[in-house]
Every structure is written in C-alpha cells, then in structure tokens.
Write a structure and sequence with these properties.
phosphatidylinositol binding, 3-stranded antiparallel beta sheet, PX Domain, 198 residues, PX domain-containing protein, PX_dom_sf, alpha+beta, 3 strands, 2 domains, PX_dom
Length: 198
Amino acid sequence: MQIAEMHGELMEFNEKLHKKLLNREKQMRTMHIVIEDLKRKVVFICKLKIVEKLFFLRSNSLSSQSMNLIIPAAFLQGSSKGPYHVYQIYIKIRNEEWIIYRRYTDFFELHHSLKKYFQIVKQFNFPPKKTFGKMDPKLVEDRRKGLEDYLRKVLFMLHENCPQFANSPCRITLLTVLPFFRFTSLINFSNFSYFYLH
C-alpha cells in the first residue's frame, strides 16, 4: 500500500514539475519574442536616424533643384492573416520637408486617377500588382524603387503641367493639387516587423 501511495505521490510531483517546465518554456519563448522585437525597434530607430541624415545630405546637395522625393523604407504592417507593406515617403519642396506613409493600393489608386487627367502618366513605369509573393523582400525592394521613380516623375510632371503648382511650388499648393501627399497617420510603429533601406 505504501509503495502505491509513494508511486502516486511521485507521479503527481512529476506532473507538477512537468507543468512548471512547460510554463517556464512558454515564458522563455515569450521573452525571446519580446527581445527580438526590441532589437528590431532599436535597429529601426538607428536606421531612421541614418535615413534622416542621408535625406538631409541629399537634399542639401541638390542646390540647383527645388524639389526632391525619396522612398527610403517599407514597413510590414497588419496581422499574420493580412500583412501589407507601408512605404515611407520623404518630400522636399524648397525649404519645406515632410514625411508621409502610403500603401501600394494608395499608389495604384493615384496612378489610375492621374491617367484620366494626364495622358503622359500612361507612359510612366508603374510597378504591377502581384497576387503571389507580395511579401518577398526582393519584390518589396524593387517595388520601392519603382514607386520612388514613379512619384518623382509625377512631381516633376505636375511642375511642368500644372500652372498652379508651377507658379508657386510649395507644400500647400502641392497638397491642393494632389491630396495624395497629405500627411496621414497610417503606420503603427509599435507593430512593424521589417525594415528595408536602400
């Protein structure tokens, strides 16, 4: 009888130890995820500072030009069920600088709208929609470059073809002519997953 009781107690003790071990493993996995997330955020902040310095240097080196636009980064947003990329856009017109964030669908809608009003936009290379492989880093980088080139062409096309913007190239005029460049709080920095920098 005592052996059976001891065996039962030993089994119960073993089960408690096993549960504690599983809980500790779960805590370790959670801590690992938190640490990795913090590492990514620190890297992001460092890279963002580098991007800001690069943008400042680039824009200052373009003394002969009054406008510049770059897309230095793309951020992965959303849940695992519906992830998407948000592109960071730096715009400089004369002494005014600002940053906006847009999804690919925003660019696609802009392109579709501009083609109705400006025939020349049909000749601009626009990164095509993709059904598969949208999260592939190479595709994101190629798309980032393509969208940057596209927006630069749009900006200079507006300067050449829109008298209101050509006569007074500034932030307010651009936002009046093309609301796409307005600031919106689209990105959630606490939830980003990847960072791409050229």
